[in-house]
Q: What sequence folds into this?
């Protein structure tokens, strides 16, 4: 459905001069009803005839909802107002979320001849965006671009964040932005009176209202909280550890600094990740693996192969295992982060419960390589271990007993080199990198795509197994693609398909397509 | 207690003669009932008239004072049956429910009522759920009025008109011995406005007093031969009486110039929308003064032929504006014109769409098309010859995701469906039927559990064909609202009697939750005027179910999954019923949050749980979301060049229900989730232990950080 075709030409009959038509589009639970109540109360107190309607019902359970208000200066008669917004005939559109602004535009409620669009730029993700195994988040930039064209005036900033920062909810900041926009012929005090008459959470609402009002008036659209840190400072993250440790780290870090800057950009965080995962020695291993790709690459190709190698070799080397989880969960920085996030300041205590569910695979993975391999090959042994260990464990990581358990596990970082899981990961890594290198000599871009397939391996237990199987299926299609001009495009398509759904149905479909033309 | 309280607004219902009422449509209806001397009221909740039930419940004290009996009926059928009091007694009664699904349920009683005829005014207030915001199949209640013969009022959607319709409705009902249905559309129920009130009137005869001198009339019984007499009475007496009343009291209205070559016939409920289009075309002013004649049918059924003939007199063309299908009014008026040899051309569904809501755009397009055909000269130039290019706005329909309703944050139904999904992963997909209620959201992603829904309380009944069993057992879902509405007999009784080998899961959230949190028999709250705390499991056992499993904390996903697994695999081949009970989170938060805040303020010890995700541990596969869909569990992009996919993230709206952690455990997902309990006002002993613990932990952490390289944020 194309929006523009639905937009009627401007009708200015004059019969509706002075009438203000305002629609609120929100997500159920955002307080659209409260906002509508304020607007109505405001209009009536300022001597306007006013009518409000809403579509209630189950849509209010987290679905898209709409409220509609019309007002006109009170005269001798009773105005006949509409109960629903019409395309091309809305003066003020308040969208409490960015995609709802998009929906309003699609429905033709935002038109360049008349509409002031007040839209919070934040996102409340729809289920369809969230459940995709890859990245299914809709492009808010596209909606913003459309809004700039569709609206006569656009007021847009993160009103959700501003509300939360002021201890209130978005209805207050939307009301503030409405006041600040000057789209209604009432002054600030009249808006504030409406909030006071509402009588609920008045102080917090007024504070958030004021903040949004100021922000809209002064026209500042940059978000001081969202300023990205300087890339240079990001590159040189602070190194903690003993002097000796730091010196050791410096030896490998120096190697990285000699890489081309395009590669360095990813190699530095990559190095940090693997060093944190195990030790500095592991960092050297990382560098030598990366180095072999750098040598095969050159600036003409934009160092694409080396860049992807820097990224995915690091991810592959820092695989997700019990030891890494235990280490991350016992770090001081994590405790501080939770304390801030949960607002557990002074005078409050924080209890943290971890949800772990180890299976035999995880236990066996931690055993020395040979023993682990032997036990894993024995179904009887695996069943026994499952019987002993396979159940949900809830650990109170704020208690000393459970903290120490995790702490000890997290301390096995360097022991891990000798573990069964490490042997498996190393073998997998080698096979994958060998394939990349072999391919790189024949088809550079296909090799890049092979590196990128590592993205498919993620998660723990079943999720991890499913990821591995997707990876294997994607990689096995290379045999079919080899020698084709468009091999890399196809592998990229196959990878995208694998990230579309959980079971890999789209992936199977894509592979079938490849098989069909490969046979011909 | 219902989700929305009207305690404050109910005060407005006490306004007297000459005062001004300002508020919502449903409150105006309630006020009009009281001003009409109604003797009893009742109904069954459902959008868009749920709030009318809530208003009545909150006004119970005032109703009792006035001698009005309020009944929260068990179903629409029960509500309609209650109108039987008006058959024999001169008492006015009103019931309310949603249309057309509520009317479907009530139709047995309504048909009997219409056959018997009434003595006291009987009013059925139907919230017509058609168009945007509707959650049901799109049909018209109009057909019921025609088949059973009760009069259908469809007033203009403003408060004075709606109030007048209530009052005139009772009079019409009494004048024609026929029940009257007052239809209000979704937005009209919630439209705000003002009207001048009059004093409330006590019923001349209360239901209480009526019991002192019971009445009966053999002729009112729907049995042969009286039923045949009723049929003739409808046509020979009641219909003419109704027509006479409608004409004499001018229930239908005409607006605009008298002599004009064209005219518009419109359902009352569509009036504002028509005026808006005329305003935009410059053919009406702000106050609704139209340049085109309008015949507004505040009575949608029956059509009054004499009025139609008068209105069409001297007109070349008539436009019928009638939303929905079939186009009953258009057909009726066509017949009137044809049989009276009128040459007036009839338009309606030729310029308007047969199906779907008449939105602002549809109305403008339809009216414009009609005028272009009949009187193009009165249209503004811009419409006749558009010379302005419509602005090109980028198409974002591929980008903007749909946003259907879903389970609220912390909803206790989410873990039930997560458990069923987990069990299905092991045992394969099963035949699952759904029911009406919040639990129907499970049929949408991410759960996609349950397909067909055949009606309220009919979940298990709609699986009856599979009662004989097979390789895998059929599962059906039933809510507590549906269970008490109809499910106990039609679904569970049916399973028992037919020795069903299938599984019914009853979702017990302590309320009729989808309709706004009204109490039902099994609600756990103490309700001062209603009997609650009647357990569903007792009722189920009472009708003969032997295999019953009660779970009192649905958030225990491993246990929930174990029970579902047992039900699907047990050797027992009779009906298996799982009652899964936990309180609706929306209502629970509404109840507990103020108490909790007060306790914190007063310095009492409070534990506040919330969940979090360790973003370094989350790998961005989103398996947790596929078992949740919770609004507070969302995604965010990390500022990390090594990561491709966004990671899970829980915002401050999390209520700590536990589903995330339980699911991570039951489905063996990942160790990223943690629950953080913030203890407000801890005891001094707790604080001491806490301090000591954190000292030890800090010491251990420092010890380790000296031995290895880690990276902090740049300073």
A:
């Amino acid at each position: 459905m194309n929006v523009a075709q639905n937009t009627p030409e401007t009708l200015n009959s004059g019969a509706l001069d002075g009438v203000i038509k305002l629609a609120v589009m929100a997500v159920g639970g955002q307080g659209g009803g409260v906002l509508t109540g304020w607007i109505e109360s405001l209009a009536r107190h300022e001597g306007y005839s006013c009518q409000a309607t809403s579509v209630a019902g189950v849509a209010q359970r987290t679905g898209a909802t709409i409220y509609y208000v019309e007002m006109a200066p009170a005269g001798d008669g009773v105005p006949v107002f509409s109960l629903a917004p019409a395309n091309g005939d809305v003066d003020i559109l308040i969208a409490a979320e960015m995609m709802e602004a998009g929906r309003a535009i699609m429905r033709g409620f935002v038109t360049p001849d008349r509409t002031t669009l007040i839209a919070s730029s934040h996102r409340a993700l729809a289920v369809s965006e969230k459940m995709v195994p890859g990245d299914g988040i809709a492009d808010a930039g596209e909606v913003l671009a459309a809004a700039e064209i569709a609206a006569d005036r656009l007021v847009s900033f993160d009103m959700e964040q501003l509300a939360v920062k002021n201890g209130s909810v978005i209805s207050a900041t939307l009301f503030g932005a409405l006041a600040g926009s000057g789209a209604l012929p009432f002054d600030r005090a009249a808006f504030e009176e409406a909030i006071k008459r509402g009588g609920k959470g008045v102080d917090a609402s007024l504070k958030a209202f004021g903040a949004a009002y100021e922000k809209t008036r002064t026209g500042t659209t940059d978000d001081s909280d969202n300023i990205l840190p300087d890339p240079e400072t990001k590159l040189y993250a602070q190194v903690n550890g003993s002097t000796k440790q730091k010196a050791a780290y410096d030896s490998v870090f120096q190697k990285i600094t000699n890489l081309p800057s395009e590669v360095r950009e990813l190699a530095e965080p990559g190095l940090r990740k693997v060093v944190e995962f195990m030790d500095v020695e592991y960092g050297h291993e990382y560098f030598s693996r990366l180095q072999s790709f750098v040598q095969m690459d050159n600036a003409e190709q934009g160092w694409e192969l080396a860049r992807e190698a820097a990224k995915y070799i690091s991810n592959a080397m820092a695989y997700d295992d019990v030891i890494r989880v235990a280490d991350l969960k016992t770090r001081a920085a994590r405790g501080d982060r939770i304390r801030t996030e949960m607002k557990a300041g002074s005078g409050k205590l924080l209890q943290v419960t971890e949800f772990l569910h180890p299976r035999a695979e995880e236990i066996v993975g931690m055993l020395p390589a040979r023993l682990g391999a032997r036990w894993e090959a024995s179904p009887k042994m695996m069943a026994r271990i499952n019987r002993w260990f396979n159940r949900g464990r809830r650990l109170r990581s704020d208690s000393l007993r459970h903290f120490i358990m995790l702490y000890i596990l997290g301390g096995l970082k360097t022991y891990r080199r000798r573990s069964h899981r490490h042997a498996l990961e190393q073998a997998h890594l080698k096979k994958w990198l060998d394939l990349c290198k072999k391919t790189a000599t024949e088809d550079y871009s296909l090799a890049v795509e092979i590196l990128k397939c590592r993205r498919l391996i993620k998660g723990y237990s079943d999720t991890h197994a499913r990821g591995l199987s997707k990876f294997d299926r994607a990689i096995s299609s290379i045999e079919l693609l080899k020698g084709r001009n468009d091999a890399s495009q196809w592998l990229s398509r196959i990878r995208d398909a694998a990230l579309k759904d959980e079971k890999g149905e789209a992936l199977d479909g894509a592979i079938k397509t490849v098989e069909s033309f490969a046979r011909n | 207690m219902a989700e929305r309280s009207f305690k404050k607004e109910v005060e407005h219902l006490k306004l007297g003669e000459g005062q001004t009422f300002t508020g919502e449509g449903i409150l105006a209806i309630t006020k009009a009932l009281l001003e009409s001397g109604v003797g009893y009221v009742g109904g069954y909740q459902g959008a868009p008239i749920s709030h009318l039930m809530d208003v009545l419940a909150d006004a119970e004290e005032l109703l009792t004072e006035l001698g009005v009996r309020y009944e929260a009926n068990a179903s629409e059928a029960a509500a309609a049956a209650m109108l039987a009091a008006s058959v024999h007694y001169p008492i006015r009664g009103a019931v309310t429910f949603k249309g057309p699904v509520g009317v479907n349920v009530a139709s047995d009683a309504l048909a009997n009522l219409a056959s018997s005829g009434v003595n006291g005014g009987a009013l059925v207030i139907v919230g017509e759920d058609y168009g945007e915001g509707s959650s049901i199949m799109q049909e018209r209640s109009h057909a019921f009025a025609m088949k059973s013969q009760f009069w259908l009022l469809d007033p203009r959607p403003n408060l004075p008109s709606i109030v007048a319709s209530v009052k005139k409705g009772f009079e019409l009902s009494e004048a024609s011995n026929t029940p009257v249905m007052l239809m209000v559309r979704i937005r009209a129920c919630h439209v705000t406005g003002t009207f001048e009130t009059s004093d409330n009137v006590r019923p001349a005869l209360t239901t209480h007093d009526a019991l002192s001198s019971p009445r009966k009339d053999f002729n009112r019984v729907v049995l042969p031969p009286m039923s045949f007499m009723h049929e003739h009475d409808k046509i020979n007496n009641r219909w003419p009486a109704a027509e006479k009343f409608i004409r004499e009291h001018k229930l239908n209205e005409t607006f605009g110039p008298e002599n004009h070559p064209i005219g518009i016939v419109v359902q009352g409920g569509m009036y504002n929308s028509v005026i808006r289009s005329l305003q935009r075309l410059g053919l009406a002013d702000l106050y609704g003064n139209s340049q085109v004649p309008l015949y507004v049918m505040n009575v949608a059924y029956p059509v009054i032929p004499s009025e139609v003939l008068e209105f069409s007199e001297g007109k070349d063309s008539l436009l019928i504006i009638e939303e929905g299908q079939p186009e009953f009014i258009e057909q009726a008026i066509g017949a009137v014109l044809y049989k009276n040899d009128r040459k007036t051309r009839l338009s309606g569904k030729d310029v308007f769409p047969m199906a779907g809501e008449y939105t602002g755009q549809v109305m403008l397009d339809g009216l414009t098309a009609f005028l272009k055909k009949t009187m193009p000269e009165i249209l503004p130039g811009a419409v006749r010859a558009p010379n302005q290019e419509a602005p090109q706005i980028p198409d974002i329909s591929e980008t903007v995701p749909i946003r259907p309703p879903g389970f609220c944050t912390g909803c206790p139904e989410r873990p039930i469906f997560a458990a069923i999904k987990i069990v299905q992963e092991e045992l394969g997909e099963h035949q699952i039927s759904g029911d009406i209620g919040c639990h129907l959201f499970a049929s949408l992603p991410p759960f996609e559990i349950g397909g067909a829904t055949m009606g309220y309380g009919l979940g298990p009944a709609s699986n009856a064909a599979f009662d004989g069993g097979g390789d895998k057992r059929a599962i059906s879902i039933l809510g507590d609202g549906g269970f008490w509405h109809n499910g106990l007999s039609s679904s569970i009784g049916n399973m028992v009697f037919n020795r069903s080998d299938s599984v019914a899961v009853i979702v017990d959230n302590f309320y009729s939750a989808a309709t706004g949190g009204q109490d039902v028999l099994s609600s756990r709250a103490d309700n001062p005027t209603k009997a609650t705390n009647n357990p569903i499991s007792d009722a189920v056992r009472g009708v003969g179910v032997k295999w019953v499993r009660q779970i009192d904390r649905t958030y225990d996903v491993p246990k929930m999954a174990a029970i579902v697994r047992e039900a699907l695999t047990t050797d027992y081949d009779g009906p298996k019923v799982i009652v899964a009970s936990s309180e609706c989170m929306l209502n629970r938060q509404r109840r507990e949050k103020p108490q909790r805040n007060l306790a914190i303020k007063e310095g009492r010890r409070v534990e506040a749980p919330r969940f979090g995700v360790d973003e370094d541990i989350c790998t961005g596969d989103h398996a947790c979301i596929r078992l949740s869909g919770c609004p507070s569990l969302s995604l965010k992009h990390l500022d990390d060049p090594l990561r491709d996919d966004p990671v899970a993230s829980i915002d401050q709206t999390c209520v700590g229900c536990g589903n995330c952690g339980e699911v991570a455990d039951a489905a063996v997902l990942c160790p990223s989730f943690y629950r953080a309990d913030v203890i407000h006002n801890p005891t001094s002993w707790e604080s001491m232990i806490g301090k000591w613990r954190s000292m030890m932990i800090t010491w251990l952490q420092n010890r380790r950080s000296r031995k290895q390289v880690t990276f902090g944020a740049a300073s």
About this structure: Chain B has a mean pLDDT of 95.
